[in-house]
Amino acid sequence: MKILISADMEGATGVTWPADVRPGAPEWQRCREMFTSDVDAAVRGFFDGGADQVLINEAHATMRNLLLERLDERVDMLTGRHKDLSMVEGVQYGDVDGIAFLGYHGGAGMEGVLAHTYLANTITGVWLNGVRASEGLLNAHVAAEFGVPVILVTGDDITCEDALGYAPEAHKVAVKDHVSRYAAICRTPARTAADIRTAARAATALAVRHAPVHAGPHTVAVEFDAEHLAAAVTVVPGVARTGERKIAYTAERMYDAIRVFKAVTTIAASAMEENYG
């Protein structure tokens, strides 16, 4: 049994504001230890439950946040950027039996601590086939296309509610309760580690590959906070403006849809100027 962990940071224990997840900030240095604690707890829980292999894919910002030396020695970690499937890299090779979304968060335009979709601000909404989409929903559709079930989701309470829509059977652990975009009622790392390890152990029973789900075509719509960003991303073939600040595109496979989304967000990020966006 091989488990893949997609590890994001905004939904980690103790994280409530931008500096907590901004690489290099003093607050990030402190919070990356709690992030590592969450991930290590899941790793140990999966091995407790009978997993033979656990691979962590770092999925936040620079994708160089976890403290490798603090992790269970049995685990492997994929760290660094520029991966084909970004947050769910590794799911496409046919050897993963279940995937966990750790430290996830609400999507752009939704409630939730540090809610966003790929870009911290800038994007005000993403829809997949007409349904407002978080990173969790997008990534779950990619995983399904390779026959891999989502078995565990951690984050704030809003994240766990969101996961009911795309992974109803998955075990869920709320490490904090949303108060506002930049405030939460947080549990201590000792408590969240215990809860995550217990949930991960139970979640291994769900790690059973199923037939790939080919549900295309998939239409992705994105709304930005400025019209020039919608104009900028139309350089990507197949991406068209559908409004002053909105674009959309269609792909037969989620594999392609998520890669186009990565291109769109990368171009939008490069089209922003300091302060004015």
Give a short summary of the structure:
The protein is an alpha/beta fold.
Give the helices and strands as they follow along the chain: EHEEEEEHEHEEHEHEEH
Mean pLDDT: 97
How is the biggest beta sheet arranged? Answer: 7 strands, mixed
Number of helices: 6
Order of strands, main sheet, comes to 3-2-1-4-7-8-9
Helix-residue proportion: 25-40%
Uncertain stretches of 5 or more adjacent residues:
none
Structural class: alpha/beta
Share of β-strand residues: 15-25%
Q: Rg, please?
A: 18 Å
* Multimer state: single chain
Distance from N terminus to C terminus (CA atoms, Å) equals 45 Å
Number of strands: 12
The gross shape turns out to be globular
Please tell me about this protein's structure.
The protein has 277 residues and is α/β, with parallel strands linked by helices. The protein contains six helices and twelve strands. It has helices at 26-48, 135-145, 157-166, 189-203, 227-232, 254-270; strands spanning 2-7, 53-58, 76-78, 98-104, 123-128, 131-132, 150-156, 171-180, 183-186, 218-224, 240-241, 246-251. It has a seven-stranded mixed sheet with strand order 3-2-1-4-7-8-9, sandwiched between helices. Strands 6-5-10-12-11 form a five-stranded antiparallel sheet.
